[in-house]
Design a protein that fits this description.
The complex is a heterodimer of chains A (379) and B (361).
Chain A (H helix, E strand, L loop, with lengths): L1 E5 L7 H10 L1 H6 L2 E2 L11 H6 L7 H5 L5 H19 L7 E5 L9 H12 L5 E8 L2 H14 L19 H12 L4 E5 L10 H8 L20 H11 L5 E2 L2 E2 L3 H10 L10 H9 L2 H12 L21 H16 L5 H20 L22
Parallel strand pairs in A: 1-3, 1-4, 2-3, 4-5
Antiparallel strand pairs in A: 6-7
Helix pairs in contact in A: 6-8, 8-13
Chain B lengths: L1 E5 L7 H10 L1 H6 L2 E2 L11 H6 L7 H5 L5 H19 L7 E5 L9 H12 L5 E8 L2 H14 L20 H12 L4 E5 L10 H8 L20 H10 L15 H11 L10 H8 L3 H12 L21 H16 L5 H15 L7
Parallel strand pairs in B: 1-3, 1-4, 2-3, 4-5
Classes of the chains: A alpha/beta (379), B alpha/beta (361).
């Protein structure tokens, strides 16, 4: 039947779609879809690790200690028979769902051809490449938040992000069209008004021909967005709480991020209208090309740049005190034992509070009866 | 003109009385009760600084850099001069109220006589020495709390009477005061609910100085509240890292803010000796207390309230109490004092300290 290859892009509901597909794998099988189990849990990242150029070592490969061309070849040699063995169990009348937004990391023709050759091993030749595209200002904003969660420290400045590598979607899709054919590409603008029921999962499943989702489970999606305050708080904290320590991923850092997410009830992170409009000018032509080439229309994104309902990252002192106070009281201090609590109190008090009470030079020492002792000492 | 000299003792409602006098200064003056202004605000500690022997450098004198006999002498001359000037404004029908529990630091007849010498400069008035006495076991517990507030890190031990409790032998404590002022000048008040007028220190004190109707006067909120066993133990353990005295003989005033937070959340059990420990502790004081009762009150017993039969409460710091205390300190006192960059670095530092790499679970 058909291979549905969902390649992202990131920040377009991919986690929702992947989780939905994962938890409903058995039910989908009854409806004629297979979801591979050997390509990575939920996110089929092993496709990327397999197909990527052997001289390229991204975070996926590094996390598996694949850091030399030789180790890439070893990986592929091990992966291939596993893949063959899994596809041996699939029937020709089944369609296949593969999904990983990391696939967008494949940009070279030979990488995509390696991927295509792999997929052809299934015996299926009808391959649909599904890609959701998000308006660039929204993508930048969402990606910025993600970068801060990933430990970055750069300030929110979209104009600084205009480069060859930016989201010129026409360029990014070109190699996919070359390898899989322009008509194989299913391009979907990621906008509420363009999505079926305004929903990423509904829309994706509809592309697969599944319009009735009754009986399928909807895993709850945690609201994990940071607001304009917590994102700036995190950016500033990142300098002191590195994502990696001693070469190892600092996993508990995730808890700090979750605590910040839970505290995110302030203004939504959003580019100002003026900044968004200026930023989008860079992509106008590219977006028009994508719309004409893949959608047969003139405009890729129809929703207007929002009125300023949100805010760019900022951190007023009182908000910082509220966030810091809540993090300390509810997340950090409860992790300490009594000795650590005493030590922390003494340290921070001596360093930050005590100096504020020191009498200015030359002023007479204040008299007070608080803590007065019946003490008497000889000089 | 009568001078009422309120000498404490500490932990017998002195802060309440002093705050009441200060808050109602003008209103009391209209009723003929005057509180001097030359002896320091609220607590007239300069009386003690004046009367202590030349070689004593206590925290009062240290705070004022009075560390040599010469500086003590200069202080006395200046104080006497301003005191006399103020005394000239007092009327024969007025009652003059002086109050400072630090006067209990005067222990020799020589020091007390020096104090009387200063008061006599005001003219030949009648002087009454008012002293509230608290049952010794309760005073001991209360003093311990005060010592910890003052910076001590010694654990609580209901010490047998001896070195540390000599001040609690009230007959001996009162003897030099009686020698100098005369036994009849000493007004002894047991500090117990059943003995105080309306069970209240302020009502009782004002009644002693001749004012029974306090309508129209302001009642300030209670100060110097006692700590519960959790905040008490927390502060005791914190004290070695938060010394009360800074360089240059200055006190660390930030401790007041810290203690204020601790007091505000002290709603747990208070320190209490066991009935057996109380019996043991009180035994050596019985004879002296009886003597004080007979000499100054014309009665047989000084204290009337029975010993509590409640179980003892010892200082302790369970983990959840420590967390509650530190949370309160951070949210009420520490974080509001921080600048933006400090909030970030403090949060990050404590986060890192609280997440040992070997325990990522």
């Amino acid at each position: 039947m058909t291979i549905y290859l969902h390649i992202g892009t990131p920040k377009t509901g991919t986690t929702s779609i992947q989780t939905f597909v994962d938890v409903n794998a058995a039910a989908l099988a009854e409806r004629g879809f297979v979801v591979p189990t050997n390509l990575g849990k939920i996110n089929h990242r092993r496709l990327v690790m397999y197909a990527m150029d052997e001289r390229h070592f991204d975070s996926l490969r590094r996390s598996k200690r694949i850091v030399t061309p030789e180790s890439v070849r070893v990986y592929r040699d091990k992966f291939l028979p596993e893949f063959r063995s899994e596809i041996a169990g699939w029937r020709p009348d089944q369609s296949i769902i593969m999904t990983s937004e990391f696939l967008m990391r494949l940009r070279r023709i030979d990488e995509l051809e390696r991927l295509k050759d792999l997929l052809l091993l299934t015996g299926q030749t009808d391959i649909r490449v599904i890609v959701y595209l998000r308006r660039q200002d929204l993508y930048y904003t969402s990606g910025y938040s993600q970068s801060m969660k990933g430990g970055k420290e750069f300030v929110f400045a979209p104009e600084g992000e205009i480069s060859e590598a930016a989201n010129y979607y026409d360029r990014n899709l070109e190699p996919w069209a070359k390898v899989f054919g322009q008509h194989a590409l299913v391009v979907r603008p990621f906008e509420r008004s363009a999505l079926k029921n305004g929903d990423a999962v509904d829309d994706f499943m509809s592309l697969l021909g599944v319009d009735d989702l009754s009986g399928l489970r909807r895993p709850p999606i945690r609201n994990e967005s940071l607001d304009a305050y917590t994102v700036e708080f995190l950016r500033r904290v990142n300098r002191f709480v590195p994502r990696k320590s001693l070469g190892k991923e600092n996993r508990v850092r995730m808890r700090l991020i979750q605590a910040l997410e839970a505290l995110s009830d302030g203004p939504k992170l959003q580019m100002t209208r003026a900044n968004a409009e200026r930023f989008l000018q860079h992509f106008e032509e590219s977006n028009r090309t994508v719309a004409r080439t893949y959608l047969g229309q003139d405009v890729l994104f129809r929703e207007p740049v929002a009125e300023a309902a949100g805010m760019e990252p900022t951190l007023p002192l009182d908000v910082a005190q509220r966030i810091g106070g809540a993090l300390l009281a509810d997340t950090i201090l409860p992790r300490m034992d009594t000795d650590q609590l005493l030590e922390a109190t003494a340290q921070i008090w001596n360093e930050f509070v005590k100096p504020r009470f020191a009498a200015p030079a030359g002023a007479a020492a204040a008299e007070s009866s608080a803590g007065e002792l019946p003490e008497r000492e000889l000089a | 003109m009568t001078i009422f000299l309120h000498i404490g003792r500490g932990k017998t409602g002195t802060t309440s009385i002093q705050t009441f006098l200060e808050a109602n200064g003008p209103a009391l003056a209209e009723r003929g009760i005057v509180t001097p202004t030359t002896l320091a605000r609220r607590n007239h500690r300069r009386l003690t600084m004046y009367a202590l022997n030349d070689d004593v450098v206590d925290n009062l004198r240290r705070a004022k850099r009075m560390t040599t006999p010469q500086s003590v002498q200069r202080f006395r001359e200046r104080l006497a001069e301003s005191f006399v000037a103020e005394a000239k404004t007092w009327q024969p029908d007025q009652a003059i109220v002086m109050t400072s529990e630090q006067m209990t630091r005067l222990r020799t007849a020589e020091e007390i006589a020096r104090l009387k010498g200063l008061l006599d400069l005001a003219g030949h008035g009648d002087i009454r020495v008012i002293v509230y006495l608290r049952r010794q076991d309760l005073a001991q517990v209360s003093t311990y709390s005060q010592l910890v507030k003052g910076g001590s890190s010694a654990p609580f031990q209901p010490a047998p009477p001896g070195e540390g409790t000599s001040q609690l032998f009230y007959d001996a404590f009162l003897a030099p005061w009686a020698d100098v002022f005369g036994t009849r000048a000493i007004v002894v008040r047991p500090f117990e609910s059943c003995s105080l007028k309306n069970g209240d220190a302020i009502d009782d004190f004002m009644s002693v100085v001749g004012l029974d109707d306090l309508t129209g006067l302001v009642r300030p909120p209670r100060g110097n509240a006692s700590l519960d066993v959790y905040t008490l133990e927390f502060l005791r353990r914190l004290n070695p890292q938060l010394p009360r005295w800074l360089e240059n003989n200055k006190q660390d005033r930030s401790r007041d803010a810290l203690i204020a937070v601790l007091e505000s959340i002290s709603d747990g059990p208070k320190l209490r000796m066991s009935p057996e420990a109380t019996e043991r502790f009180m035994a050596p004081f019985r004879a002296g207390n009886a003597l004080v009762a007979r000499t100054y009150l014309g009665q047989d017993e000084l204290f009337r309230e029975g010993f509590s039969d409640e179980p003892p409460v010892e200082p302790g710091l369970p983990a959840e109490a420590a967390l509650r205390i530190v949370r309160a300190l951070f949210t009420r006192a520490i974080v509001p004092a921080l600048e933006l960059d400090d909030i970030i670095s403090v949060t990050a530092r404590l986060w890192n300290n609280s997440t040992p790499p070997q325990n990522p679970a």
